[in-house]
Amino acid sequence: MVLMRQFCYKCGALEAQKGQLIQGLCQRCFAEENRLIRAPAKLEVTICRRCVAYMLGKRWYQAGEGDAVANAVRATALSAIRVAHLSPAGMKLLHPQEAPEAELSIEPKIKEGVIEVRAKGKIHELQAEPQVEEARIKFEVKQITCDVCSLKSAHHYEAILQVRGDLTKKRSEIKAALERLADHESKRKRAAFISHVEERKEGPDFYVNPLSLARQMASLLRSEFGAKIEESAKLIGQTRDGRQKFKFSILARLPSEGSY
């Protein structure tokens, strides 16, 4: 009985000497023929000139802590890179988050306008050692105004929160508490913000977006300062799809000093 010796069809290396073949290729030739990552040569990074949020596809995202521009560049690169994975069903190009076994390092060089990418991982489970690859991506930053900053500049709001009652000693404390709440919510939902505040003799008017944030602010005044809440709505027209459009007013009336 003659034993057939398997060998790499590209370089002729014997499987017994160079390790298990993958699709007829030795370990080295398989790695040479199959790139671990696919990365574009150039990227455009879209950043809001006001808040430094960045756009991926048609959505805006907060840049997070630290260097906002570097975070935006890194996130844009991560969304564009693909990781190769070979299974019995064939070769697939996966988003990095779909290939957690692959190690990916993305280092933006802001002044140079390049992104250095380093990847380590296996395309096929039969590979004895992970592949290591590097890539350089050129990038340009495009600055525009994001959707939320456009709303803010237009003083957009869905509700007016009117704070009334005895504000003799609590006015600054109440305002600070409401602004902290709005700031906290804006970190969870970009479109949550206080558009502007009108200081009136009888109390401040907070112009708030969206309605849910105004209701949260009113709830805080009720729980922390004993305010009584009244809400009303005024029909102001229709949306493009025919739905009724309202502006809401929430009256928060504080009790007299010493009763809360």
Give a short synopsis of this structure.
With 260 residues, the protein is α+β, with helices and mostly antiparallel strands. The chain has six helices and 14 strands.
Tell me what the structure shows.
With 260 residues, the chain is α+β, with helices and mostly antiparallel strands. It has two domains: 114 residues, no CATH class; 100 residues, Roll (Ubiquitin-like (UB roll)). Helix content is 25%, strand content 38%. It has a six-stranded mixed β-sheet, covered by helices on one side. The chain has a five-stranded mixed β-sheet with strand order 11-12-10-14-13. A three-stranded antiparallel β-sheet has the order 1-5-6. Strand 13 and strand 14 form a beta hairpin. The chain starts with 14 loop residues before the first helix and ends in a 6-residue tail after the last strand.
Task: List its traits.
Ubiquitin-like (UB roll), 260 residues, 2 domains, 14 strands, six-stranded mixed β-sheet, elongated, five-stranded mixed β-sheet
Largest sheet: 6 strands, mixed
Low-confidence stretches at least 5 residues in length (pLDDT < 50)?
Answer: none
Number of strands: 14
Structural class: alpha+beta
How would you write the strand order of the largest sheet? 4-3-2-9-8-7
Distance between the termini: 98 Å
List the topology elements.
Elements: H1 15-18, H2 27-33, E1 37-38, E2 42-48, E3 54-56, E4 59-61, H3 68-80, E5 82-87, E6 90-94, E7 103-109, E8 114-121, E9 131-144, H4 147-153, E10 159-165, H5 171-188, E11 193-200, E12 203-209, H6 211-225, E13 228-238, E14 244-254
Parallel strand pairs: 2-9, 10-14
Antiparallel strand pairs: 1-5, 2-3, 3-4, 5-6, 7-8, 8-9, 10-12, 11-12, 13-14
